[in-house]
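Hi R.,

Here's the chain you asked about this morning:
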Amino acid sequence: MYLAIVVLIQACCTIDSELCWNCIPPGKHRSKYVFDIPIKLWPARDTFRVGDTIWVESVFSKRMVEATTGREFTIENVEWVPDILIFPLTREIIALYKKDIELFPPWDELGPYGFDGEMYSLKYHMVLKDTGLYIHCLQLDETSHDYSELELEGKCPSYGVEVQMIVNDGDDNNIHMLQQSPHYYFVNYYSEPEVFYTRGCYCFRVVE
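And the predicted structure, written out as tokens:
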């Protein structure tokens, strides 16, 4: 009887049943795997001065733990391409923010995450050059890479993948500052927790 049950479960796994140990557990109504990429931004303040520097670092192992199942997957040789967004919240959205904040390495030289065979890493810093209220988001460039289709060993075939970018272990990250923006887009899109806290966002003010 026991052998018959094992054979049945294995057969179900081949047709992507939730009986498969690698699939989302029963009761978890999701059809995708969720992975978190950590981001450290420091100093974690709400107010800076012109000339100050903000440091950003994202380092994580190729052995990533899936959030719903708690299962560890090895994800190697993936080209994680960052998409860094920095917008002024109290001026025109099309403002030339690259004059407000200088990035090192420069914007056009910042490539994908490095990979040394064990760890992925991305590091840069920003020098603040003008006053204002800003939002900074470090997310993945999904226009050129479809991360939802990542191939994982042991992955259930019909399950997609979602990658979340988490700043400072999911701290507040000054989300309340979005309410000070006159722009409908920022208040109504980025202030949604499922957007702000999964796309690597952080708000800050720069003063003289």
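The first strand starts at residue 32 and ends at 42.

Let me know if you need anything else.
M.
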